[in-house]
Write a structure and sequence with these properties.
Elements: H1 5-14, H2 20-27, H3 32-57, H4 60-67, E1 73-79, E2 88-94, H5 112-125, E3 128-134, H6 136-142, H7 144-157, E4 165-169, E5 179-182, H8 190-213, H9 219-222, H10 228-237
Parallel strand pairs: 1-4, 4-5
Antiparallel strand pairs: 1-2, 2-3
Length: about 250
C-alpha cells in the first residue's frame, strides 16, 4: 500500500538526505503531489551542493598556505570605511582546516539572519578571533585608510593563537608575517569572508547600542551611513561624539 502524500511529506521532513533507492521509488510515483515534493527536495539539494562547491573554491588560498607549511592562516577584513559616524572595525579569523561554514561571502551580500547564524558558528568553531576597533577621533586624526590598517593590526594582535600567514582583503600591512593581498578577498577566501562577517556583526551591534545613546539619527538601521534619515538627524540635532568630523557633510556642522 502506497504512503499518503502527507506521510511522504513527513518522511522528507524526517530524512534530510534520502537514499538512492528511496529517490528511485519516489521518482516512479506518478502522483503530482509526490513529484512536487521530490522536485522541491532536488532543488534544495542542488542549492546545498552549490554552497559546498563554493566553500571548496574559496578554500584555495588557505590550502596553498597550508601546503607551504602555515599552521595558522588568518583572514583579515574591515568594515565601516564609508559611514559618517562610528568606528572602523576589523577582524582577524583563523578557521579550522576541517571546518565547513556554508554560505560565507562578503558580509554585505549575506542577509542579516544568515550573518548572525554564521557569526555564531564562527565564534564557536574558529581557532582564534581577534577584533580591532578604531575610534572616530582617530579616524579624523590619521584618515580612514590608515585607521583601517590600524584596526587590522589591532585585530591580529588580539588573536589568542598567533597567526603565521595572513590573507588580507585589498591591503598590505606593515607586519613581519607572510601575507597575501586579495582584491575582493571577502568573496574569494573563506577566512577573509569569516573576518568580514565577524567585523560587520560586531560593528552593527555597536551602532544599535549607539542608537539608544544618540537617538534621532537612525543608527540602528543605517549603521552610521549617510542615509536620508541620518542626514535629517544631523540637520535637526547636529553632530554627536561618534561622528567623523573630517567627513563631508559632517564637517559642515562642526
Amino acid at each position: 500500500m502506497k504512503q499518503s502524500i502527507e506521510q511522504i511529506k513527513q518522511y522528507f521532513q524526517d530524512h534530510p538526505l534520502l537514499t538512492d533507492d528511496k529517490l528511485a521509488e519516489l521518482a516512479n510515483d506518478e502522483r503530482k503531489g509526490v513529484q512536487t515534493l521530490l522536485s522541491r527536495y532536488n532543488k534544495e539539494q542542488a542549492k546545498k551542493q552549490a554552497l559546498v562547491d563554493r566553500f571548496e573554491r574559496m578554500s584555495e588560498f588557505e590550502k596553498i598556505a597550508w601546503s607551504k607549511g602555515a599552521q595558522a592562516v588568518a583572514g583579515i577584513d574591515e568594515v565601516g570605511r564609508g559611514p559618517l559616524a562610528g568606528p572602523v572595525v576589523a577582524a582577524a579569523v583563523i578557521l579550522p582546516p576541517a571546518g565547513q561554514f556554508l554560505g560565507l561571502n562578503d558580509s554585505k551580500q549575506v542577509p542579516e539572519a544568515q550573518r548572525e547564524a554564521l557569526f555564531q558558528a564562527i565564534s564557536e568553531q574558529a581557532i582564534a578571533i581577534g577584533i580591532g576597533i578604531i575610534s572616530p577621533q582617530c579616524i579624523d586624526e590619521v584618515n580612514i585608510y590608515e585607521a583601517s590598517k590600524l584596526a587590522m593590526m589591532e585585530a591580529i594582535e588580539h588573536l589568542s593563537t598567533p597567526a603565521d600567514y595572513l590573507l588580507i582583503d585589498a591591503m598590505t600591512l606593515p607586519i613581519n608575517l607572510p601575507q597575501e593581498k586579495l582584491i575582493k578577498g571577502d568573496a574569494r577566501s573563506n577566512s577573509i569572508a569569516a573576518a568580514s562577517i565577524i567585523a560587520k556583526v560586531t560593528r552593527d551591534r555597536m551602532m544599535k547600542q549607539y542608537a539608544i545613546e544618540y537617538p534621532g539619527y537612525d543608527f540602528e538601521h543605517n549603521a552610521g551611513y549617510g542615509t536620508a534619515k541620518h542626514l535629517a538627524g544631523l540637520k535637526a540635532n547636529g553632530i554627536t561624539p561618534i561622528h567623523r568630523k573630517s567627513f563631508a557633510p559632517v564637517k559642515n556642522y562642526c
